[in-house]
Write a structure and sequence with these properties.
Blueprint: H1 7-14, E1 22-28, E2 33-40, H2 42-48, H3 55-72, E3 80-87, E4 91-99, E5 103-110, H4 112-115, H5 122-126, E6 129-136, E7 144-149, H6 155-165, E8 171-177, E9 186-193, H7 212-219, H8 224-228, H9 234-242, E10 247-249, E11 253-254, E12 256-257, H10 263-271, H11 275-281, E13 286-290, E14 297-301, H12 302-311
Parallel strand pairs: 5-12
Antiparallel strand pairs: 1-2, 1-10, 1-11, 2-9, 3-4, 3-6, 4-5, 6-7, 8-9, 13-14
Helix pairs in contact: 10-12
Bound molecules: zinc ion.
Zinc ion (ZN) binds at residues 259, 261, 291, 293-294, 296.
């Protein structure tokens, strides 16, 4: 059985205010740059405790979940933002999705046997593949999807590469994580150039946004301790880093692990099965629907599945 660290009990004992599980949007008024500071702790424990991931896989899930918060919260449109990495390595799939109300979920598919044969390096774990970003705004809206080859030595670097090459937007993300958990703790600070209207049709990537080099240099002075110390208010971190850039913060978005699965969704999925498929998937007269994200299992008898088919 997996042991989940009692972070909340610790919190009550010490009575310290914990600035965690949040996204703090900000902009740098001396330049046309904006950013996000993300910290995740308990939320990641909740996501990772649902599975028994080997440490390298858990670290990738943590990074994917953090990037989903960073990038999903940068979008102007609300919806479900999904980050997916697919490769031919031992970790064949990484998925993290974020909704604008602060719900986060994530999971990984991996092959335990081949995992033990490769070094704990990003490119070896994922192998050759691609990283995709999807924004689903619901019925009646077109789905947005962007894809880039997995490249560089981390998921974060691949995401940066995507924004520069495909979106022509200068983006820099600094990501920090504890080596293991629980308790897990991660933090990320992202700076991105704001799209400029006069740039429409202009793909000149050599054009460095005003103030970019100075702000990136400041970003790289951020230490893991400052980024991940949950006793330190994120506003203080941002002010220390960027006061010369005229940092201005916006409303904080709190994050929690929340899955969108449920009985109704499981019923919807089963209603599409033919009688032969339902029989094939059944075991001892029972068909199970398992949510890959949160590991919840929904069980139905074959008679219940037949009734769902009839009701469809
Ligand atoms: Zn679920």
């Amino acid at each position: 059985m997996l042991f989940c660290y009692p972070r909340r009990i610790m919190f009550e004992e010490t009575m310290q205010l914990s600035h965690n599980d949040m996204i703090v949007p900000f902009q740098l008024e001396q330049s046309a740059l904006r950013g996000r500071l993300v910290r995740l702790g308990t939320t990641l424990d909740d996501i990772l405790c649902k599975h028994q991931y080997p440490p390298p896989v858990a670290r990738l899930v943590a990074e994917a979940a953090t990037l989903a918060c960073v990038l999903g919260s940068m979008l102007k449109e609300d919806g479900i933002f999904s980050l997916q990495a697919k490769g031919d390595g031992p970790v064949s799939l990484l998925v993290a999705d974020y909704t604008a109300d602060g719900a986060l979920r994530a999971y990984a598919s991996f092959n335990n046997e081949s995992l033990s044969t490769v070094p704990d390096r990003f490119c070896e774990l994922l192998g050759t593949g691609y990283l995709s970003f999807t924004l689903d705004r619901g019925a009646g809206f077109e789905r947005y999807q962007g894809i880039v080859e997995i490249d560089g030595d981390s998921l974060t670097k691949s995401a940066q590469h995507y924004f520069l090459q495909s979106e022509q937007v200068h983006t820099e993300i600094k990501y920090f994580a504890t080596a293991g958990g629980p308790p897990w703790q991660v933090a990320a600070v992202c700076i991105q150039a704001m799209p400029r209207t006069e740039d429409i049709g202009d793909h000149d990537l050599d054009r460095i946004p005003d103030g970019w080099d100075e702000m990136i240099a400041l970003l790289h002075t951020l230490t893991p301790l400052e980024a991940m110390d949950t006793a330190l208010h994120p506003h203080d971190v941002l002010f220390r880093l960027f006061h010369e850039g005229g940092v201005r913060v916006h409303d904080t978005q709190h994050i929690q692990h929340r899955c969108r699965c449920g009985l109704a969704r499981a019923e919807q999925a089963l209603a599409t099965l033919s009688e032969a498929e339902a029989l094939e998937f059944s075991d001892d007269n029972i068909v199970e629907v398992k949510c890959e994200f949160c590991n919840s299992t929904y069980r139905f008898t074959l008679a219940e599945v037949a009734a769902l088919r009839g009701a469809d």
